[in-house]
Amino acid sequence: MRVLALDTATEACSVALIDGTAVIGRYAEVGRGHAEEVLAMVDAVLGEAGIPLRRLNGIAAGIGPGSFTGVRISVSVAQGLAFGAGLPVIPLTSLEALAWRAIEGGAMHALACIDARMGEVYWGSFAADAARGLAILGALQVGPAATVRWAGTVPFRGIGRGFTAYPELAALPGLALAPRDAQALPDARDLARLGALRLEAGEGLDPAALKPQYVRDKVALTEAERRASK
What is the pLDDT of residue 154? Predict the structure, then answer.
């Protein structure tokens, strides 16, 4: 299974290609210029692999949540590449990508958390799943750190930079949190591995069906909200 994966939903910009068990990837944390960076990474990864786009089986796309602009870039680039090469797409959320890294690392349950700015976090609870890699436990959420809850009753592993942005999350009952995991951002290498599983499970979509998953519909605080927060 050959799957190209890309994600620009957060400050991290990454592209990866999985070919069987081999994975080639590029990753950088960039302030701006995700569109130019991701296209250059796509060229670099395909060139290193020596595989033309049309010989892939599909494209895994990070669909958010994250930066609204970044999410749109990820979705539109994946759609353009998939349309041009006649490939299916596999939509994956930023939180799934993080949780999959924890589960591949041996965890059976994971709580993924990303800084959503404006005093809030994006978060979701996940469990290992033999067929699909992982299963979501409830809907993805956004809200203040005080609203974050683990969906189950068993111990779980935390992952994502939301834990660094809001250190109080480290006090969640049942949480195991490694310092490295508290710094984690989505990486296309994880999307590629998870995307290959989903494609084998028959979950590829027509590129026209690929849509962002913003979770939150608000881009910024109003002036009154900023004053109140101070």
Answer: 93
